[in-house]
Structures are given as structure tokens and as C-alpha cells.
């Protein structure tokens, strides 16, 4: 049975192919270098959507002997690949823009082409909205990376439409390759951000400071009976959040009582922070292991 994230990724491939067809038609009708750049970015969108689908499908495999922590990190590789594809597309666009700059040529005026390009932009904006919501709800780095790239594509397409319209109105031919070059610059920035965030996930960056503060507060408020918590460590791995810390309890406390405190903390973390996919590890220690810099128990 396919997961919601996988079904969303399949839909992304279909949307990317439809948008690519529309943008390619707009370019074919006009011969505009800027519209060519916009269409080429959609080629990247198709490749990225396919990579996201493969990553999402693989990431939902259950943990096994070789991957005891699961396969959730596979989604980060998709985002890294998407960033690399963006860079490659930007280089091709810059090459075409330079050639058009040296030998300026007027694109063919076509209101139909502009309407088709506008329809493609609207479809991308609508699907980017859906992807952003589902990516956040499913905590999928691959879907969120795809959504961010689509939003960058929407901004680019809007600029290209305005620019090509100005070329038709003013007859200033150098606007066309200039817009193509600006498109390349915009998607390069988008690619860099994707790679930066994905590498952070692969390098086990801690959760954001705001979430870390909330985790400390929940632990402190629900550890009654313990003395303190210390050595709190966190990381994200796709849809999973890993939380681990040491819990100091009185030396004479029974194991069953210490275990009950751990269960209470885990339940509170999942419920209050909505971390249903959290993997929580608590190491219980006697009071002699307390540290002054630990999380105090309220």
C-alpha cells in the first residue's frame, strides 16, 4: 500500500510533465531565450519529481538489520540531487543567454504563447501550495524541497512573462537574454539553499532552537520524581525526530518507577510537540551523575 507522501510524489511527476509541455509549447511558438530558460527549469522539475518519488518510496522502507534506524535519510539525497540538477540547468541557460546576447534576435510575437506560459505558472503555483502543506504535514524533506523549487520557478516564470511582454512592446531585444541570465541566477540561489539544507540533515544538525527550547520545557514539566535531565541531543532524519538524554533519579528509586517517569515524558513529548514520529531514548542514571547544567525538574 502506498504512503500519502508517495502518492503526492507521483502527482508531482504528473504536474511537472504537464507544466513542461506547456512551457515547451510557449518557447516553440516564440523562440524566446527567456522562455527556453523557463522551460529548461521545468525539465529539472521533472527530474527532481522523479528523484523525490524514488527517495520517498525508499525512505518508507521499515528498519532492517543493515539500517536499524530506518531509511528516512534517503529523502535528503533527493534534495541534494535536485540542487545539483538546478546548477546544471543554470549553466546551460547562461550559455544560451550569452549566445543570444551576442547575436540578438527578436522572438515571435504570440499572445497564445504568453497565455500558455501564464497557465503553466498558475499550475505550478497551485501545486507548490499543495506540496508545501503536504510536505510539512508529512515532514518530508523531499516534498518540501520540491515545493521550494516550484515556488522559485513561479517567481522566475512571472518575471519572464513580464519581460517577454516588454520585449514585444518595446522591441528591446537584449531584454530577452538578460531575463534568461536572471533566471539562471535565481535558480542557482534556489539550488544552493536546497543543497545547504539537505547537507545539514545528512550531517545530523540539531532541531531548530525554538523546538529545542520546547523540548527542554516539556521534559522539565513532566519529569516529576526525577532530579534532572542532561546531555540532551536531537537530530532530524526526514520525517523522524531523534531525541535522547540522560535522566537522573534518586539512587533508591525502583526500576519500575523510573520507567514510569520515562513513559510519562515520552508521551508528553509526542502529544504536546506533535512529534508522532519521534524516536526517544532516555538513559536513567543515579543521583551521583547529576550535572549543574542539566534540565531541572519543575
Automatic annotation (TrEMBL):
Main location: membrane
Family annotation (InterPro entries): Cation_efflux, Cation_efflux_CTD, Cation_efflux_CTD_sf, Cation_efflux_TM, Cation_efflux_TMD_sf, CDF_Transporter
UniProt membrane topology term: Multi-pass membrane protein
Xref: SUPFAM superfamilies: Cation efflux protein cytoplasmic domain-like, Cation efflux protein transmembrane domain-like
Annotated GO CC locations: plasma membrane
Transmembrane segments: 34-56, 76-94, 106-130, 150-172
Localization of this protein: Membrane
One GO process term, biological-process aspect: intracellular zinc ion homeostasis
Keywords: Membrane, Transmembrane, Transmembrane helix, Transport
GO molecular function, one term: cadmium ion transmembrane transporter activity
Domain annotation Cation efflux protein transmembrane: ranges: 10-203
Domain Cation efflux protein cytoplasmic: 208-287
Family named by the database record: Belongs to the cation diffusion facilitator (CDF) transporter (TC 2.A.4) family.
Name of the protein described by the UniProt record: Cadmium transporter
Amino acid at each position: 500500500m502506498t504512503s500519502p507522501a508517495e502518492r503526492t510524489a507521483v502527482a508531482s511527476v504528473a504536474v511537472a510533465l504537464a507544466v513542461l509541455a506547456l512551457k515547451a509549447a510557449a518557447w516553440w511558438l516564440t523562440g524566446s531565450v527567456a522562455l527556453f530558460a523557463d522551460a529548461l527549469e521545468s525539465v529539472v522539475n521533472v527530474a527532481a519529481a522523479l528523484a523525490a518519488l524514488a527517495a520517498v518510496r525508499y525512505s518508507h522502507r521499515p528498519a532492517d538489520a543493515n539500517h536499524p534506524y530506518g531509511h528516512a535519510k534517503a529523502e535528503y539525497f533527493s534534495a541534494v540531487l535536485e540542487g545539483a540538477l538546478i546548477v546544471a540547468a543554470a549553466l546551460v541557460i547562461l550559455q544560451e543567454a550569452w549566445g543570444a546576447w551576442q547575436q540578438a534576435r527578436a522572438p515571435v510575437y504570440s499572445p497564445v504563447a504568453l497565455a500558455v506560459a501564464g497557465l503553466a505558472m498558475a499550475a505550478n503555483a497551485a501545486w507548490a501550495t499543495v506540496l508545501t502543506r503536504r510536505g510539512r504535514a508529512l515532514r518530508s524533506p523531499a516534498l518540501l524541497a520540491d515545493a521550494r523549487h516550484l515556488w522559485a520557478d513561479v517567481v522566475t516564470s512571472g518575471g519572464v512573462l513580464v519581460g517577454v511582454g516588454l520585449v514585444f512592446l518595446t522591441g528591446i531585444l537584449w531584454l530577452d537574454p538578460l531575463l534568461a541570465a536572471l533566471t539562471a541566477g535565481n535558480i542557482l540561489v534556489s539550488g544552493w539553499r536546497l543543497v545547504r539544507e539537505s547537507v545539514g540533515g545528512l550531517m545530523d544538525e540539531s532541531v531548530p532552537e525554538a523546538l529545542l527550547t520546547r523540548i527542554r520545557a516539556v521534559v522539565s514539566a513532566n519529569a516529576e520524581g526525577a532530579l534532572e535531565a542532561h546531555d540532551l541531543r536531537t537530530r532530524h532524519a526526514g520525517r523522524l525526530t531523534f531525541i535522547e538524554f540522560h535522566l537522573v533519579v534518586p539512587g533508591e528509586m525502583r526500576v519500575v518507577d523510573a520507567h514510569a517517569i520515562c513513559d510519562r515524558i515520552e508521551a508528553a513529548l509526542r502529544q504536546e510537540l506533535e512529534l508522532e514520529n519521534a524516536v526517544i531514548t532516555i538513559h536513567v542514571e543515579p543521583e551521583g551523575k547529576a550535572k549543574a547544567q542539566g534540565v531541572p525538574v519543575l
